[in-house]
Design brief:
207 residues, mainly beta, Porin, 14% helix, 66% strand, elongated
Length: 207
Amino acid sequence: MTRFVLGALAFLAAGWSIQAKAADFNYNSRGPLTVNQPLNAYSWAGPYLGGNFGYAWGSVDNAWAKPSGFVGGLQAGYNFQRGPWVFGAEADIQGSSADDTFATWKFSNPWFGTVRGRGGYAFNNVLFYGTLGLAFGELRASTFGLSESHTNVGWTAGLGAEFGFAPNWSAKIEYLYVDLANSNFVTTGASHGLSFGTVRAGVNYRF
């Protein structure tokens, strides 16, 4: 009888041991599957700084001049992210070689800048966005040694796409339309403003 009881206890102990090992195996095998991996693993959140280069073309109000030329500059911004939705703000400053001549007058846009809001939708490391905000820049008219410059304020809007190719690096391409308000030029005796489009490519580093 004693041998029977001891044998039964040994059998139960062995069964419990097998069940415990099986449970441990199942827990370990299921462990990696219970980790909540984010659907959007690439993070667009935080500050960034970068540079860009592109081309601009436009027209001057009350003159037949159509300034065009290369542009390049720096941009900085900050993004917030909630799931796939990304929103934030960006500012940039650009040097420009855009100019054109109408009659004896040469019109040029030596520089411009923007301060914009950005919002878009990210497919992991690819972000599509729209942007809207304030623009400012210089319009210069010159002839026969005379030159007059006005810094005008206006608005800008555009679309873009950005691709994250490394944890801290991304490349972008975007189109902006810029409309700078008119101002009166004494030397030409007319009111002039500048509107133009620009396509530019850039690179950003995220901190």
